[in-house]
Amino acid sequence: MLKTGAQHLQSLRDGRRVYIGKELIEDVTTHPAFAHAAQTMAAIYDAKADPANREAMSFEEDGERYSNYFIKATTREDLARRSATHKAIADLSYGMFGRSPDHVASFVTGMAMRPEAFGTYASNVSAYYEHMRRNDIYATYAVLPPQAARNPEFYSRMNIPVPSLHVVREEDDGVVVSGMKMLATGAVLANEIWIGNLLPLAPENANQAITCAVPVNAPGLSLWSRKSLERAAPHEFESPLAYRYDETDSMLICEEVKIPWEKVFVHNDALLAREVYISTPAHCFGNHQSNVRYLSKLGLIVGLASKVAGASGADGVPVVRETLGRLASLEALLEGLVAGQIQNAESWPEGYVTFNRRIMYAALNWCTESYTAIVDVLRELCGGGVFQMPADISVAADPALMHTFQTYWATPQMAATDRMKLFKLAWDVVGSEFAGRHQQYEKFYAGASFIVRGHSYREAPWARFNGIVDGLMASYDIPAEYRGYPKAAE
């Protein structure tokens, strides 16, 4: 079943507990902290359900239609179809929604392609995949322990419990969990949360090795949201991105939350809790979506750079055109990396294909390393223009002020109001609080840089690389006149 936007909005009015500071939000679909982001999410669902997009964004199986990101790929064409759907969804938010509905769904689809990796819980994973695609579920995840909990000695010394989410006890009908997980990006707009562990766990922390799924409105579950950037945006003209595309980030708090056994996927296995992401196509499928989403954002940034340069005529200066050309080449580079993941698809696991993992991780590393530098190029092109505008567009309400504004702020290339609109948008990418959140997000989305590079190290064909060197050295030898000298020690 393909949900509509209205159906998704209705699903969010389910008694969930979301806090901003001390304020308990009763309805995220109408509250000024989240309402526009909720509408953005509804628009994604409406786009998928639109009959005009039916063939492009969904597929039919056994008489039912499902979103394309639930395709278990068996051909390159399947991968291309998945990728095109990721791009269409990302374009709807200009790449600003990292945890759109296709993200965690891609992880789960990858897991369902090799459920045996989950051992005794394999059937649970397959059933959850079916549940997600049949109900068009939007799930996000919380898969990291809180930062302070990574130093358990501190808690031992203070004689207080480690706050990491853990299993409190087992019961006949499920497990009970308590504690905290981060970072549930998008969770206030989601239906369910996938709880897991992307960081290694020590064997003695087996009670934290719980991987499961839980509805956002589960009794005992609450979300503690960071500051809403949407609520700080007075209207779309002033903060066009924050106004609609603040997906929010929340800490997940569980207090005696019951997880039915059928929604448990890993339990009491510290090694398996992390391995399930890379021993299945899950990590590859989910991060291909991230690569594609980043590509959408990069398109916006390159377009902004061109428009900002054109607003003053600077795009006619050779060095500026060279800068724009470099940005355009970087966008094309990422597009090529995305395409290469499909072209060089891997036949893995048995009976399926997945995106090329080495190229995917190379793209992921490039995205992590490059975002700050790319935004800085746009920042330089903006120069002081972002500070030369009036405080806000309220000058338009006064005819005399508006006449002055239109007279003195216009350039030969652009009217004053259009310039202000452009620079407000650019500021939401380079300098606003929303921009700062995205810079931090892109830098640490996949973890610290050494973690991202560790993935590339793991996937690299070191035997082949070493073989190249060995083969070259085997092609020549010590000159004949020096062979045997000096003699090796007896």
Task: Describe the structure concisely for a colleague.
The chain has 490 residues and is α+β, with helices and mostly antiparallel strands. 47% of the residues lie in helices and 12% in strands.
Describe the structure.
This protein is of the alpha+beta class. It folds into two domains: 5-278, Butyryl-CoA Dehydrogenase, subunit A, domain 2 (Beta Barrel); 282-467, Butyryl-CoA Dehydrogenase, subunit A, domain 3 (Up-down Bundle). It has 17 helices and twelve strands. The protein has helices spanning 5-11, 35-49, 54-57, 76-92, 102-112, 122-134, 152-158, 240-245, 270-278, 282-311, 318-343, 357-382, 399-408, 416-430, 433-444, 449-459, 462-474; strands spanning 18-20, 23-25, 58-61, 64-67, 139-142, 166-171, 174-181, 192-195, 211-215, 221-225, 250-260, 264-266. Helix 5 (102-112) runs antiparallel to helix 10 (282-311), helix 10 (282-311) runs parallel beside helix 12 (357-382) and helix 12 (357-382) runs antiparallel to helix 16 (449-459). The radius of gyration is 26 Å and the shape is globular.
User: Roughly what is the average pLDDT, rounded to an integer?
Assistant: 94
- Please state how the strands of the largest beta sheet are arranged side by side: 2-1-10-11-7-6
Number of domains: 2
- Please identify which CATH superfamily of the largest domain we are dealing with: Butyryl-CoA Dehydrogenase, subunit A, domain 2
- Outline type: globular
Q: Could you name the CATH class of the largest domain?
A: Mainly Beta
